[in-house]
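Onboarding guide, step 5: your first structure request.
Type a short instruction followed by the sequence, for example:

Predict the 3D structure of this protein.
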Amino acid sequence: MSVTTATTLATAPPTENDWVDLSVATHNVEPSALLTLSLWGNSGTGYVDQNRKNLLVISPYNQPQHILDTTTIPKAAALLAEALAVFKPTRPDYATAAYVDSFNWDEVIAYLRELISAAPYSWRSESFYIVVFRSRSVAARDGATLGMLDMNAFEEALKAGGLLRYWCGFADSEGNNLSTCVWTNRAASTGGTCGSKHGSASKHAKQAYANYSLERLTLNINHDATEWNICKWEP
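The system replies with structure tokens like these:
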């Protein structure tokens, strides 16, 4: 039986080493605004080709430079990345509700167990790093520019290695939204978000959001993936 851990999560202002979401979805840009965006709303994550299951779409973007090649990461991380293709919210107020209660982690871990069995693979206890970005957007913003900045920052992070999933939602009626990234570990997150493209995106955050905050979490998955929990990340 899967076990979740619901905790009161501390938030902190983003730093230069954290993912700052300036997503197309967040800013309600029409899909036609960016020709390279064809997986609108994160609905098309998964295999690029059923015959090439090492290539995964892990974000709203599906051009060749946005595809994760799972042969470049450890097997456990590759299996989790594949399982995260089914990741989705379970409630409409995910932007403001507790993270662990807002997404279908039970389904993700159940799918992970299926993948482990099919591999087959001997899964040992593993931990992964999650960043949750909550924001409230301002009324006036350049959505097309912000979307392009986000796409470029994602490409840069993917090249750095260790990014397993990038999901972003849609702003609610009050402008609240949430985006999240799953990484192999904290070091990968740091390395993936310190480049120039991420820096350019970060500079626009103050203008794009009325306020924003970060949650840094750890996903723990035990031996054989029979139990899991999400808790506050500790240095």
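Each response can be followed by summary notes, for example: Residues 136 and 174 are 7 Å apart (CA to CA).
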